[in-house]
Amino acid sequence: xxxxxxxxxxxxxxxxxxxxxxxxxxxxxxxxxxxxxxxxxxxxxxxxxxxxxxxxxxxxxxxxxxxxxxxxxxxxxxxxxxxxxxxxxxxxxxxxxxxxxxxxxxxxxxxxxxxxxxxxxxxxxxxxxxxxxxxxxxxxxxxxxxxxxxxxxxxxxxxxxxxxxxxxxxxxxxxxxxxxxxxxxxxxxxxxxxxxxxxxxxxxxxxxxxxxxxxxxxxxxxxxxxxxxxxxxxxxxxxxxxxxxxxxxxxxxxxxxxxxxxxxxxxxxxx
Length: 271
Known about the structure:
7-stranded mixed beta sheet, alpha/beta, 3-stranded antiparallel beta sheet, 18% strand
């Protein structure tokens, strides 16, 4: 298993399968590739590349494995308390509040945002619109359906208990949890690639958590610059608690809450 054969595999994935491997940490990519190699019983990168070139199903399986789909309802409750304060501020100051949940995986984060807006009397949920985006079409299919199956290792009731009255937003049938229509109607989904696609515009809040820890530092700047362009002046950005904004981009953002990794776009900085 040589570096050359691994690089050849990644080059194929980037140029033929249109997944920007060059932006991601090699250690992260190697873990995902090695997992697929074990499942397909290939011992070398070269053998696996040969399989990949002739098997569209395996191409799709690898792309799914490389997509980052770690998510949950109200993940890190202290951060969500901070997001609630942000939404209260935005709801007071604006007739409409546009939110983008970027790299949203299967939709649990944007639905959490919608539930939070409905649950808080200081937030006008009718003024809130939420876009969830991801690069994974299968994840987005699950998101649009809004039905989640609880596993033995995941307790949705515990996650949702961030809200005292979450039962009115989720219909439960044994291990199946279905997001109600009133929550779904505030949320739309679309495929978007933060690395390759154009910036969006006009958002008051962008939530993009736990993606940048997998991205090489040299590419974080362009991705965060794209997010900054997507925000209105003084719009908010929330990133993961283990993540930081590179020093050369700090000028585009002001710190709102350093511990919770909540920032605001500096309106005086042109992008």
